[in-house]
């Protein structure tokens, strides 16, 4: 079975087509900007969780390498599918931020092995849940998915802002140098998008990253310490950490897998709506969830954290409309190279946070707008307005005051206190189930 059209028909304009063939060399920049958009966010959860669990620098470096390989494998499976696993859509995968809080709790109490055991079990459950998505997905109506996508966008704005200022915990956070670097990157993205012609217009993010990186070099803000002692070739090890199957840890992590599944549904829905101009199908949702779950379990077998769809890349797709699977696959290939050849990943790791923030702040805004467009497509009936407004108000509002969840057990506190997407999901689901249907309004 052919995955693409005949290579003799390769055309750069096929970057806007899901299955058209694009000349290989010309496709690389479009795929590369997806890698650059997600690279720092892909390794940041590893560094945070490793620090919380007290892992050695050597173990942390090994996990970063594995994270790139797993992201590449997951993206390839989403693009082309293996049996029923994968959506056959331009979904870019990476290590999820959604689990960071609960991993901090689990790792502190039961160790990193309990995290691995919980991810193996939780990933399998999500994967199996994906196979039966058409039976239970009805409870996640379009208005629920639209509310979740909007919440995802809003939750990422602070991530982009923190990157713009230099990254959380950086010694020069909010300095004029970071403001200057992020501002130059953002302005270059905008100007390139305005003045570039044809398909080149969609490389605005890559252009901004390159210019920002050059400026950072001139300002002495690029840290090359990640290149010290890097091996030429290195492969990940199977079971580098002994999994521990703790019941409490499995429960907490599985709860977050349900939240992650909702984010994946939202990301997939937002991608098809904003980039492909159509509704997502049950088969695509099922394949996307199955890939999320089973690849996450595979990642844990190699000692790494869960893999899920990346919202920032959904924002990039919404902004550029470059949805070609062959093109995105070149980016997945770069991820695999970054893992097999650690020097590649080490070079990409020198990208300053402020440069990344200058690009991502615009991409995350695109996700918010995609969510609002989905809300508009659902129709502004009184029922839909109530579900969306109340779920967003409670989800975004209550998580601004985490102490409001103090009455919950610690396990549930870690799930809801700082995860607005989880709260929006639960409230929207409950309202969607209990509120009577409307027969005289816009379609849901």
Give a description of the structure.
The chain is an all-alpha fold. It has helices at residues 24-53, 57-80, 100-110, 112-131, 133-136, 142-164, 176-195, 204-218, 247-275, 282-301, 311-320, 325-340, 342-348, 353-378, 382-398, 410-416, 420-434; strands at 93-95, 307-309. The protein has a domain at 15-144 and 246-352 and 365-434. The protein is built from 17 helices and two strands. A two-stranded antiparallel ribbon has the order 1-2. The radius of gyration is 21 Å and the shape is globular. The protein starts with 23 loop residues before the first helix and ends in a 10-residue tail after the last helix.
Q: How many separate helices?
A: 17
User: Which range best describes the helical content: under 10%, 10-25%, 25-40%, 40-55%, 55-70% or over 70%?
Assistant: 55-70%
Query: Helix and strand string, N-terminal first?
Result: HHEHHHHHHHHEHHHHHHH
Residues in β-strands, percent: under 5%
The 3D shape can be described as: globular
Structural class: mainly alpha
Compact overview of the structure:
With 444 residues, the protein is an all-alpha fold.
Task: Indicate the topology.
Blueprint: H1 24-53, H2 57-80, E1 93-95, H3 100-110, H4 112-131, H5 133-136, H6 142-164, H7 176-195, H8 204-218, H9 247-275, H10 282-301, E2 307-309, H11 311-320, H12 325-340, H13 342-348, H14 353-378, H15 382-398, H16 410-416, H17 420-434
Antiparallel strand pairs: 1-2
Helix pairs in contact: 1-2, 1-3, 1-12, 2-10, 2-12, 3-4, 3-9, 4-9, 4-10, 6-9, 6-14, 6-15, 6-17, 7-8, 7-14, 8-14, 9-10, 9-11, 9-16, 11-14, 12-13, 15-17
